[in-house]
Design a protein that fits this description.
The chain has about 450 residues and is of the alpha+beta class. The chain has eight helices and 26 strands.
């Protein structure tokens, strides 16, 4: 079995879209997601019956569609989203994995989790309140995580009499701010999640709007990737050596291709050793193939016997990343315990985990105005800041701007395995919007 470059190009256009929702408390994120699931016929009968029963018990006449995603007891009691709720649904045009993320400031780290793998972020705004601080925070997080598409959903238009002027003002303010952050594509849509206006079906109340509904945009937004143009990266997860009578000399390196494509006959470099060889065979699903691409799980065989183990990285010899022991990155702190200068941590990058020490925390970011406050000394839960980490062993690390997969890493507490921070190597934003300001007594809580 073999696959040509033309077939690879055809397969590079995925039919799966990962997207996340974000916004302030009570902006209607869970209601929007519930409306998407309900109106796209993606809700099972027993799920809808459970929601209807729960809504009646709370004295509501109509089903509260937010309950389709707010699954925790505390979420239902308080009427807010606390945890990230993942849901899968599909239409005839595309499959979706969505992450409904919390709106509270103290759950900013949850939005980071939900948006880290998203190709699109839906940021909701209450039409009555307009762009608020949390809206700017979520736009900044989306930009920081290099989410390529952002949808501004101006919700509750029914409560402002469906006025075009209200929508236009909010859309202009948000678009200006997000563009300064370097967000490449912004689409504004006026909706009413509760009434269903412009969610799945076009609204009869806003004939002045001629753009797509939320679902139509989700179904048609381009998420194709030219995999042949990506930096090809293959983190080794497992070395296969059966040493049986049938396969006495078989030595294969198994794992998931993180980015790009690999071909039989291609010259590759193994990092961090720097040794080179040629791909002699690629095995996928029990068959030999001529080419494989991300995110396939395959076994690569090399022409030369090289000491390779879990955590090593195979890359094209002509496009191999540089190795380093000094990692400069932006991190989102997700643990309750702080991250301090001098702290010893484990750094997990793809399949490789190494010992490291936090050498410096040059600044902490205030997402309200994108200012960098210098030398905070430590980062606490939900903080985003710049760090310098020294690793005990070299890492083959790309910049996050070049590869979200191989430019990201985790900092882990070596004592109990707690994830401390999610890191992104290289520059923070696509633009140079953030500025450094002097420390002040107000602190950096956001």
């Amino acid at each position: 079995m073999s696959t040509t470059s033309e077939q690879l190009a055809d397969l590079s256009a995925t039919t799966l879209l990962r997207f996340a929702t974000a916004g302030s408390v009570d902006d209607g994120k869970s209601t929007l997601v519930g409306r998407l699931l309900h109106d796209s016929k993606s809700v099972l009968a027993d799920q809808l019956e459970a929601v209807e029963a729960a809504s009646l018990s709370r004295g509501q006449d109509a089903p509260d569609l937010a309950l389709l995603t707010d699954g925790l007891r505390a979420e239902r009691e308080q009427g807010i989203t606390i945890d990230v709720a993942y849901r899968y649904f599909a239409t005839s045009r595309r499959r979706f994995i969505l992450a409904d993320t919390p709106g509270h400031v103290q759950y900013t780290r949850n939005m980071v989790t939900g948006a880290s793998t998203a190709e699109l972020a839906v940021v909701l705004v209450d039409a009555r309140n307009g762009v608020v601080e949390q809206t700017r925070r979520h736009a900044a997080v989306a930009a920081l995580l290099r989410v390529p598409h952002v949808v501004l959903a101006v919700n509750k238009m029914d409560l402002v009499d469906y006025q075009e002027s209200v929508f236009a003002r909010i859309a202009e303010e948000f678009t200006t701010y997000a563009s300064e952050l370097g967000v490449p594509e912004i689409t504004a849509i006026p909706i009413s999640a509760l009434a269903g206006d412009n969610v799945v079906e076009p609204s009869a109340n806003m004939d002045w709007y001629g753009g797509p509904t939320v679902l139509e945009h989700l179904e048609t937004v381009p998420v194709s990737h030219d995999l042949t143009a990506c930096h090809a990266r293959f983190p080794v997860q497992y070395v296969i050596r059966p040493q049986t009578a049938e396969h006495p000399d078989y030595r294969g390196y198994a794992g998931q291709i993180a980015a790009g494509a690999f071909r039989v006959g291609e010259r590759v470099t193994v990092l961090p050793s720097g040794r080179t060889s040629t791909i002699s065979a690629i095995d996928a699903l029990g068959e030999s193939v001529d080419i494989a691409w991300a995110p396939q799980s395959v076994t690569i065989r090399l022409a030369d016997d090289i000491d390779i183990s879990r955590g090593d990285l195979i890359a094209p010899a002509a496009d191999a990343p540089a190795t380093t022991q000094d990692v400069v990155a932006t991190v989102c702190h997700v643990a309750d315990q702080p991250l301090s200068v001098g702290q010893r941590v484990l750094l997990k990058h793809t399949t490789r985990t190494v010992k490291a020490i936090v050498k410096d925390i040059p600044s902490r970011l205030t997402l309200d105005d994108l200012s960098q406050h210098p030398a905070p000394g430590q980062l606490v839960a939900n903080d985003i800041g710049r760090v310098v980490v020294r690793t005990a062993e070299p890492l083959a690390l790309d910049t996050y701007a070049d590869s979200r997969r191989t430019g990201s890493f985790l900092l882990i507490d070596p004592s109990d395995g707690t994830t401390l921070a999610a890191g992104m190597a290289g520059d923070s934003f696509a633009s140079a919007r953030a500025v450094v300001v002097q420390d002040d007594e107000d602190g950096w809580d956001f």
